[in-house]
Structures are given as C-alpha cells and as structure tokens.
Specification:
alpha/beta, 434 Repressor (Amino-terminal Domain), 17% strand, 10 strands, binds S-adenosylmethionine, three-stranded antiparallel β-sheet, 364 residues, seven-stranded mixed β-sheet, Rossmann fold
Length: 364
C-alpha cells in the first residue's frame, strides 16, 4: 500500500488541513481521507499537491527522499554562471572615497605592496584597489572559476598594473610565496570550511603583513532595506531568510552572519591587532532613474513574471521554507517591484549594504 506523505509535508509547512484544502480547492474532509489512506487523489491532484509543497510526485508518494542538499557554492561552475549577477551587485557596493580612506588613513599603505585575493571572482577588489595603491604594487587573484578568471584577465589586459590570475581550488592551492596583504571579499560566507580558508590566508601573509576579510552580515543588509511606501517590519523582512539561513547552517552551508564572526575567527587563528569597520555604502533612491542601482544591488533587475515567482516559490519550498513565509516574501517582492517600476513613485528607498571589513596582523 502506498503511504502518501501529505500530512508530513503539510505539517512541515505549518498548514492546517483547512488551509491546504483551500489551496487545492477541495474539502478538508478530502484531505483527511488522503492522509488516512482511506482515499487517494487522482494523478492531476497529485501533481497539484506536489506543486504546493515543491517536491516531486515521487517524493510525495515516498519513493524518493526529498533532496534538500545545498548548491555547491564552491564548485567551479556555480559562480561562473553568475558573472552578470556579480558584475551588477558590485556596481554600488563601495563608496570609492571610503576605500581610499581605508588605504590611506586606516591601513596607511605608503609603499608598494603585493596583494593576494582569495576567491577573487572577476578581480573586483583588484580593480578597486590597484589605482589607489603606491606604484609598483601587484595584485594576484585566486579563483576556482575559469569563466571569472578569464573575465578578470580581460578586465586588466590593457592596464599598466602588475596582475596575475590563477585558477585553483583554495582548499588545495598552496601559494609559492608570502604576500604583504591577503584579502577576501564575499568568500567566507559561501565557504563550507571558512576557518580552513582563513588559516591558509594567514599562512600566506608576511610577518607584519595584513590579512583583510570582508563579508556581509545578511541580517543587517536585509533589515536595512527601507521603502517608505511599504510597511517596515524588519522581523517580517527577515522571516523567510531566518528559515533559509538556519536550514543551510544546519546542512553545512552558507553562514549569513559571517561578517560579524570575522574578528572572532581571526582571533582564534592567532592574528593580532584585530580591528573592524563597516562599509559605509547606503544606496538612497527617490525616483525611477535612481532605482536601477537598487534593482542591480538586489539582483531584481530582470523581468519578473508569474513563472519567475513560481520558480522562487519552488526554490524556497525545496529548501524547506514554510509556505506562509514564502507567500509573505513574494508579496513584499512584488510590492517593491511595483514601486521600483513606477514613474510616479513618491517616497524614498534606502538600502544599507551590511558589509563588515575586518583585519589583523601576522606578528609571528
Ligand atoms: C561571491 S563570489 C565573490 C567574488 C569576489 N571576491 C567579489 O567580491 O566580487 C565568491 C567567489 O569565491 C570563489 N570560490 C568559492 N569557493 C572556492 C574555492 N574552493 N576555491 C577557489 N575559489 C572559490 C567563487 O568561484 C567565487 O568567484
């Protein structure tokens, strides 16, 4: 006898029999009969039920386990397919004058330095830093993605800067020399073993050299999005992510509060003189022509239609997020997009990027 897993998925999504019945257009008694094995849904209904829960029909009838496994963030293909996303989300990530301030006034870099960038992507940090550094400085980027490494080489091909890009897996690669500065941005929160990578970074910095790690705390970022036309409730804004992030952390995935943990991890692996700052970038937009930056920074700059919302829904469902939280998230996204595409918008949107910059010295 086939045991349908309707009750199990329904409870996981915090739905009552009545709520599920309403979604499927049947009576709650029908749901109860399916759950007790007294009756079975027909094949079309089975397909509708699997859509609601974001699982396959095989999973629903218990022939296959629901695979909640995480996408491989460190695979050589994953980020290579996201070049456009990376390029867009980096456009308004830093205020150039703040970076200049860090280089000159905080880190006080007065002589040529060698920089090694872990998980460099398309070399964004190199592009930002090289023009600010003393003449004779060099930049080396390490990344697993061939597409991103090629993009990085292309970006520097006509420049006078001394740059090198190396395609490698950071867990295996051993730098041949030591560097004045080792740096990473938006790498550690995507890493399965951030501490291992940080230890490698530490091992490749010269005595008295700087190790700098930059990572977001997504909680600050998400709660720091304010649209004056929508009700502001940071807790609601975080709800879907709270489930997503806890689920991922439990499965050894991304750590969304990495930005806040950098100092403590540096302390643990032996760095000295640890200090930390926040990136001061806040995007403010009041009219249609400013909204492009917000859309790019949020990854909202492609066309959203019913199919896109269905894809988001299925993606979250497969990650085990409760349906009610997904509905709340999609409603908010739709309302934001209505505003961001409205030429008569009257209000103000501000978006705080939530990046933490932490550094320490190797004094050994
Ligand atoms: C979110 S992106 C950040 C890229 C860049 N630092 C930036 O801020 O634009 C993370 C990068 O880390 C790289 N990466 C992740 N795991 C890696 C690994 N094990 N070895 C080498 N690169 C890795 C990815 O290919 C990707 O380019």
């Amino acid at each position: 006898m086939i045991k349908l897993r309707i009750a199990e998925y329904r409870k996981k999504h915090d739905l009552t029999q009545v709520a599920l019945a309403k979604r499927l257009g049947v009576s709650f008694q029908t749901i109860s009969k399916w759950e007790n094995g007294k009756n079975y849904p027909d094949i079309e209904m089975l397909s509708d039920i699997s859509d609601v829960f974001g699982v396959s029909m095989e999973e629903l009838i218990g022939k296959k386990e629901n695979n909640l496994s995480l996408e491989k963030q460190s695979s050589s293909k994953y980020w290579g397919k996201k070049i456009d996303y990376l390029l867009d989300t980096r456009k308004e990530l830093w205020n150039d004058d703040y970076l200049e301030f860090l280089v000159e006034k905080v880190w006080k870099i007065r002589e040529a330095v060698s920089i090694l960038d872990y998980g460099c992507g398309f070399g964004y940090l190199g592009m930002k830093l090289m023009p600010l550094l003393p003449e004779g400085s060099s930049y080396t980027g390490l990344d697993i993605s061939k597409e991103l490494i090629d993009e990085g080489k292309k970006g520097f091909q006509n420049s006078e800067f001394d740059t090198e890009f190396i395609q490698c897996d950071l867990y295996e690669y051993l730098p041949k020399e030591k560097y004045d500065i080792v740096i990473s941005q938006a790498l550690l929160r995507h890493s399965e073993r951030p501490e291992t990578i940080m230890k490698k970074m530490y091992a490749s910095v010269k005595t008295n050299g700087l190790m700098i790690c930059i990572d977001v705390n997504r909680i600050y970022e998400e709660a720091g999005y304010f649209n004056s036309r929508l009700e502001y409730n940071p807790f609601d804004q975080l709800r879907v992510f709270e489930s997503l992030w806890s689920e991922e952390l439990k499965n050894g995935g991304r750590d969304y509060s990495m930005g806040s943990k950098l100092a403590s991890l540096m302390n643990k692996i032996g760095l000295k003189d640890i200090q930390s700052r926040m990136n001061d970038k806040v995007i403010v937009a009041t009219q249609l022509e400013d909204f492009t930056s917000i859309k790019e920074a949020k990854g909202w700059n492609h066309k959203y239609d019913n199919e896109s919302y269905h894809r988001i829904r299925t993606h979250f469902l497969q990650k085990g997020i409760p349906i009610n939280e997904i509905d709340l998230y999609i409603d908010r996204l739709k309302n934001n997009l209505i505003d961001l595409n409205d030429p008569s918008y009257e209000g103000c949107i501000s978006f705080f990027r939530g990046m933490v910059i932490t550094w320490g010295k190797n004094t050994e």
